[in-house]
Amino acid sequence: MVASPQNVQRMPRAQRREQILDAATRAFARTGYVATGLDGVAAEAGVTLVLLYRHFDSKADLYRAVLDRACARLEATVGSSDYDESSISALLRAAADDPDGFRLLFRHAVREPDFRDVVNGMQAMSAEVTRRELAAVIPEGPWLDWAVQYVPTVTLEGVIAWLDAGQPDPDQAADRIALVVHSAIRAANGVD
Amino acid sequence: MVASPQNVQRMPRAQRREQILDAATRAFARTGYVATGLDGVAAEAGVTLVLLYRHFDSKADLYRAVLDRACARLEATVGSSDYDESSISALLRAAADDPDGFRLLFRHAVREPDFRDVVNGMQAMSAEVTRRELAAVIPEGPWLDWAVQYVPTVTLEGVIAWLDAGQPDPDQAADRIALVVHSAIRAANGVD
DNA sequence: AGCTTTGTTTAAGTCAACTTATACAAGATG
DNA sequence: CATCTTGTATAAGTTGACTTAAACAAAGCT
User: Fold this and answer.
1) Nearest protein residue to nucleotide D10, judged by CA and C1' positions
2) Which single residue has its CA nearest the C1' atom of nucleotide D24?
3) Is B3 a member of any domain?
4) Contact B107 A107 (CB under 8 A)
């Protein structure tokens, strides 16, 4: 005989799916894809492991769904805007709206070869756009390469540090991160 | 009957150990602890899987040895110096001396809870020293927290980007990273 | 009331990666 | 030459995590 489950939280399918995605985002944001077990995800969501498989075909499928949603949210807030002043504000807004997703994308997903393709929609922003913008200001050579890698990192890490610091005044934050970014661009052109 | 191995590279035990550590550092630097298989490490070292176990008790043991050596090298070059101008030069020198170890420590090991303790000898540098230095310049509050996390990251990512850019002129690099670091500190105090 | 949907429990299957065991080949050394 | 050390090859044991299956309970809708 099977014990009868008390206090089961029933939910329409779509809503449950979202709730699982929320929990999975939190869980994966802590330790990334490989090191995070589905046990942990299920526990975080407060449901059974089996239920996960009623909503997603596999671990990879779930992870892709998590990343896709995080990407979609990010792009909805940031858009394909050029890499100008306002885009830092937009990034801060996006990070505040979905902190776990933001951290997941930029602390883990970017270094997971199997899923890099999902983030490529934004590596366009991060790499190609940046290079085009920077190439107009920095002469060809190793220091341009340096800046192309460094500037996005400085931006994103500034945002993440802002999240971790408790999200003080977003407008100030945008100005301050912009200051650092500009100094990085100036640095790539030589100190003097 | 067993095929006779041709062209076996014999080596004194200590030297083989170092060679394995080199290969393991490269392998782990690519994908971190969990996602890197001992198969891959053995292949990278050009030896058999079984031989790994003649030198190290387990995967965790091997990884610890790799991290310990990378830490030791880093500390030998950087020392427990204060966080002043010269320490950026020292970091660049250390990174150039052991690029794979450097990347392994600061892109992977810092986010692997099971092995964080190994890196703690330098989280002293990264966290405590930094906080003391910054607390003298930045008023208590969320922006101090922001800077305490952001400044070390800006420093280390600057170094890694420099590695990836082909290590152009170390002296220039030190000046340029210092410029960005100082601008981050200034930013934490407000833009104006 | 009866059917569908959502959920649980329990159990078992699969598979990759870590780990250990055994036997053999060949250089180094006294 | 005898022996120790370094190395390979092959096979099997172990474990943890992903995955599937089956049976049952209860909420919700028609």
Assistant:
1) B2
2) A2
3) no
4) no
Are B172 and A162 within 8 A, CB to CB? Answer: no
The boundaries of the domain holding residue B90 are 13-188
User: Taking 50 as the threshold, does the pLDDT of residue B3 lie above it?
Assistant: no
For A20, A32, A39, A122, the CA distances from A28, given in Å and listed in that order, are: 12, 5, 12, 19
Residue count (chain B): 192
* A96-105 burial: b if 16+ Cβ within 10 Å, else e: bebbbbbbbb
Give chain B's mean pLDDT.
92
Whether the pLDDT of residue A17 is over 90: the answer is yes
Asked whether residue A29 is assigned to any structural domain, the reply reads yes
* Cα dihedral: A17, A21, A23, A26 (round 10): -170
Contact A44, A37 (CB under 8 A): no
Q: What is the pLDDT of residues B45-88, one digit of tens each?
A: 999 999 999 999 999 999 999 999 999 999 999 886 666 778 99
A161, A175, A183 ranked by CB distance to B153: nearest: A161
User: How much is the average pLDDT of B106-113?
Assistant: 93
Q: CA–C1' distance A41–C5 (Å)?
A: 23
Residue type at A179? L
d(CA B151, CA B188): 10
For residue B7, how many C-alpha atoms fall within 13 Å in the half-sphere facing its CB? 2
Q: Is the pLDDT of residue B2 over 50?
A: no
A166 closest CB neighbour out of B142, B187, B191: B142
Nearest of A90, A89, A109 to residue A101 by alpha carbon: A109
How many CA atoms does the CB half-sphere of A180 hold within 13 Å? 35
Count of domains for chain A? 1
B54 in a structural domain? yes
A80-121 pLDDT, tens digit per residue, is 666 677 899 999 999 999 999 999 999 999 999 899 888 876
Which CATH number covers residue B166?
1.10.357.10
In a domain, A79, yes or no: yes
